[in-house]
């Protein structure tokens, strides 16, 4: 590609691919007329696939010749053709058709592709007018409860565009993760200090500004490459809307009706920019994104939403809500009426996790689940926003693990910009109590950790925490087979430097039937 700009290369690729789209499109509505022409290449935000099943997946793109100006493409609906093939050269096309990119949805396209064979990769691309998108690769999952010997996936969170390059995704592609699980903070609603890259708005608070923020993030080449590499699963945390929000409550006690307008805009922009199923499309300020994914008989992943339904954080000060270090004796923590999941989602989780009989059962969400007492010596300080602030909700999950004898329960999380590896205890206040699950929290893609040094003296107070490390950025790579779960804590070097220097910081394993990670 020497001498070519990225745009010239993509333009050349689109022209070379036109012949493959010579077959007529599936009929589009009669009122969608004419052949669209664009001021510039319309697929600047790339392509993506998500929410994989054994029979298919969702493929996504958004027409955005000027990604930061949603009006640059005009205000008419545009037909978009798509192809899905068994091979990268599109010689064996198995699905094709067209969808309509509507202006009210920022000209985003979500296609639910079905009727495919399980457990294999497929290739897909889009066309609008004479322009052809980059090619993406998606994967169907092994059929439900069919024998699966091994699977490799990555999980990650917290990618602040302004604080560094998203080069951790370059390593995920190099490691050939079959699935990428994103656990929240896909965007940050504010620019914060912007030490490396600037975002187009200082703070997103309406639909146009959230769209602009998502578009800026999507322009990162490593993020685009990872989306094109394989299929993803998603949940959100706080920064997709606003820092430390809880249901309809903002950090600074904003009027709840006004905050829900902001949440509605944020949820809509989130849906418009990710390969999510139609069932996840928001209705006003509400959206259902929790769900369960099975990889044959080997692995079940329960994706949770720990933001939309939660009771507001406990024992807040009158001046500020959200995350705080609070006294462990805070009475709100133990109120059975308080919840982190909400009644419907908790009922769904407790009623279904592990029932299918998979060998490994994952609870994927955005928080630290295990207890962390941040105060050395007498007394306790806990993080109000984590499961520590919702102890009754946590106890019900622990009871479910035990009562149902869930096979190999593993909790994965994000948010804290640090690696945690924990024994999940029956009673966190008793180090001798039974270990009933394992926990891994991934460090951030780029977001900094300002509290690692402050928090380190507290680790001896928490013997169930086998590792706490906040100095590195990266993600967690998991290889799982029928005998062992192996987690590599991958780090990527200085995120202010675009050069990738990836390595494994530590490796932990869980043996089948023996809860608790062990360092190798």
What's the SSE blueprint?
Blueprint lengths: L5 H11 L30 E4 L6 E6 L15 E8 L7 E9 L6 E6 L7 E8 L2 E2 L3 E4 L10 E7 L11 H7 L4 E4 L24 H12 L2 H9 L1 E4 L21 H17 L18 E5 L3 E5 L21 E3 L15 H10 L7 E5 L16 E3 L7 H14 L4 E5 L5 E7 L9 E7 L10 H4 L9 E5 L4 E8 L2 E8 L11 E9 L2 E6 L1
Helix pairs in contact: 2-4, 3-5
Name its key features.
about 525 residues; disordered N terminus; Immunoglobulin-like; single chain; 24 strands; Purple Acid Phosphatase, chain A, domain 2
Write a brief caption for the model.
The chain is of the alpha+beta class.
Count of discrete domains = 2
> Total number of helical segments?
8
The CATH superfamily of the largest domain is known as Alkaline phosphatase D (PhoD)
Can you tell me the CATH class of the largest domain? Alpha Beta
Q: Look at the helices and sheets and give the structural class.
A: alpha+beta
Determine the CATH topology of the largest domain: Purple Acid Phosphatase, chain A, domain 2
| Spans of at least 5 consecutive residues with low confidence | 1-20, 22-27
> What does the overall shape look like?
globular
Main beta sheet, described? 7 strands, mixed
Binned, the helix content reads 10-25%
User: Architecture of the largest domain, CATH level 2?
Assistant: 4-Layer Sandwich
Mean pLDDT: 93
Strand content: 25-35%
Task: Provide the spatial order of strands within the biggest beta sheet.
Answer: 11-10-9-21-22-23-24
């Amino acid at each position: 590609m020497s001498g070519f700009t990225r745009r010239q290369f993509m333009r050349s690729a689109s022209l070379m691919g036109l012949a493959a789209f010579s077959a007529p499109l599936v009929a589009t509505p009669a009122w969608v007329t004419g052949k669209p022409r664009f001021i510039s290449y319309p697929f600047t935000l790339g392509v993506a696939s998500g929410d994989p099943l054994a029979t298919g997946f969702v493929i996504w793109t958004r027409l955005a010749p000027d990604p930061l100006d949603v009006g640059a493409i005009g205000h008419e609906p545009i037909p978009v053709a798509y192809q899905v093939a068994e091979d990268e050269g599109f010689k064996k096309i198995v699905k094709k058709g067209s969808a309509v990119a509507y202006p009210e949805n920022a000209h985003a396209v979500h296609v639910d592709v079905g009727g495919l064979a399980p457990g294999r990769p497929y290739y897909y691309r889009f066309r609008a007018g004479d322009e052809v998108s980059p090619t993406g690769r998606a994967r169907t999952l092994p059929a439900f409860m069919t024998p699966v010997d091994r699977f490799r996936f990555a999980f990650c969170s917290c990618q602040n565009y302004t604080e560094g390059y998203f080069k951790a995704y370059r390593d995920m592609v190099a490691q050939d993760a079959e699935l990428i699980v994103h656990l929240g903070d896909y965007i940050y609603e504010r620019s914060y200090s912007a030490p490396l890259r600037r975002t187009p708005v200082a703070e997103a608070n309406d639909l146009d500004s959230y769209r602009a923020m998502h578009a800026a993030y999507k322009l990162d080449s490593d993020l685009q490459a990872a989306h094109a590499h394989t299929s993803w699963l998603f949940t959100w945390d706080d920064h997709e809307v606003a820092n430390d929000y809880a249901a309809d409550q903002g950090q600074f006690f904003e009027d709840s009706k006004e905050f829900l307008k902001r949440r509605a805009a944020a949820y809509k922009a989130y849906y418009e920019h990710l390969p999510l199923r139609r069932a996840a499309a928001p209705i006003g300020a509400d959206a259902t994104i929790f769900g369960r994914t099975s990889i044959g008989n080997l692995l079940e992943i329960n994706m949770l939403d720990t933001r939309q339904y939660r009771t507001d954080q406990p024992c807040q000060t009158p001046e500020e809500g959200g995350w705080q270090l609070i006294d462990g004796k805070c009475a709100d923590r133990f109120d059975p009426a308080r919840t982190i999941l909400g009644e419907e989602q908790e009922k769904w989780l407790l009623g279904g996790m592990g029932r299918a009989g998979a060998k490994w059962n994952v609870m994927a969400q955005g928080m630290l689940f295990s207890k962390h007492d941040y105060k050395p010596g007498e007394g306790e300080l806990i993080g109000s926003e984590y499961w520590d602030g919702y102890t009754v909700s946590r106890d019900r999950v622990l009871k479910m693990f035990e009562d149902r004898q869930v096979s190999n329960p593993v909790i994965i999380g994000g948010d804290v910009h640090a690696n945690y590896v924990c024994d999940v205890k029956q009673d966190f206040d008793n180090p001798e109590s039974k270990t009933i699950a394992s926990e891994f929290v991934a460090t951030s893609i780029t977001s900094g950790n300002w509290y690692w040094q402050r928090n380190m003296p507290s680790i001896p107070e928490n013997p169930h925490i086998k590792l706490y490390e906040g100095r590195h950025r990266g993600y967690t790579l998991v290889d799982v087979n029928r005998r062992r779960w192996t987690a590599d804590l991958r780090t990527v070097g200085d995120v202010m430097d675009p050069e990738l220097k990836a390595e494994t910081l530590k490796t932990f394993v869980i043996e089948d039937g023996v809860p608790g990670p062990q360092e190798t």
